[in-house]
Amino acid sequence: MFDGKTRVGIYGGTFAPVHNGHVVAAKAFMEQMKLDYLYIIPTYLPPHKEIDSSDSPRRRLRMCELAFKDIDGVIISDMEIKRGGRSYTYDTLRELSGEDKKLFLLCGSDMVLSFDTWFRYEDILKMCYPAYVRRERDKMIENRIIEKITEYYNKHGVMFRRILTDPIEVSSTEIRAAVKEGKDISRIVPPAVAEYIKENRLYE
Ligand code: ATP
Question: Does the beta carbon of 173 sit less than 6 angstroms from any atom of ligand 1?
Fold first, then answer.
């Protein structure tokens, strides 16, 4: 398993805003895959969803910096923001790959289910070791994930590794809605992120 190569993790997303589910997943990913470092990469434009134009990439990046500031080995990268356009994981992996590195990619359960719609997903599977983390406790979703990763394994010979966590059932959509309704979000986002959202009046 340890061959002298640098073990590099990649965790991309819209992060609008970054929340505790992301932070818990990222920490478990680093520990369980024994990563030397982990890139957190906010998208410029997510390929599969619409994003409010007021939710600027730089603000989403800043919130990631705040959320992960105390975690050693995390690098918040603006590579997708700098690249512009639709952000494809395939391009990001190409940019980060190298002879001396092993790349590990983390996805939440929803992303595992739609992974075969990603741009050049077959190539992605050749470029990294994919892993997933559960977002929910729902047994039916768990069964669908197992079916799906078995299908990927049978078709492509690549197995998604499971990162074990106590799932945190939160989404950025819920947080944006909670802020709009004036609800408290301090238990579902890191404190510095809650402060930033308030100071900049985001999602109101
Ligand atoms: P939205 O509600 O706006 O769709 P989101 O909460 O799904 O956002 P993203 O920024 O789209 O957050 O997610 C980035 C990555 O983090 C994806 O791989 C996603 O599956 C994963 N993820 C999101 N929420 C969680 C969570 N609660 N636990 C673990 N992983 C998560």
Answer: yes
Q: What is the pLDDT of residues 66-112, one digit of tens each?
A: 999 999 999 999 999 999 989 999 999 999 999 999 999 999 999 99
Ligand 1 pocket test, pick from 11, 15, 18, 22 with the greatest ligand atom count within 8 Å of Cβ, gives: 22
- Render pLDDT for 135-175 as a digit per residue (tens, 0 to 9): 999 999 999 999 999 999 999 999 999 999 999 999 999 99
Rounded distance between C-alpha atoms, residue 171 and residue 173, angstroms: 5
Instruction: Give the pTM.
Output: 0.95
Atom of ligand 1 nearest to the CA of 135: 28
Pick the atom of ligand 1 nearest to 107's CA: 18
* 10, 53, 67, 200 from 127: Cα distances, Å: 12, 32, 28, 39
Strand-pairing partners, residue 45, are: 86
Q: Which of 135, 137, 164, 169 to mutate to test the pocket of ligand 1 (most atoms within 8 A of CB)?
A: 135
Give the dihedral of Cα atoms 191, 24, 109, 141; nearest 10 deg: -90
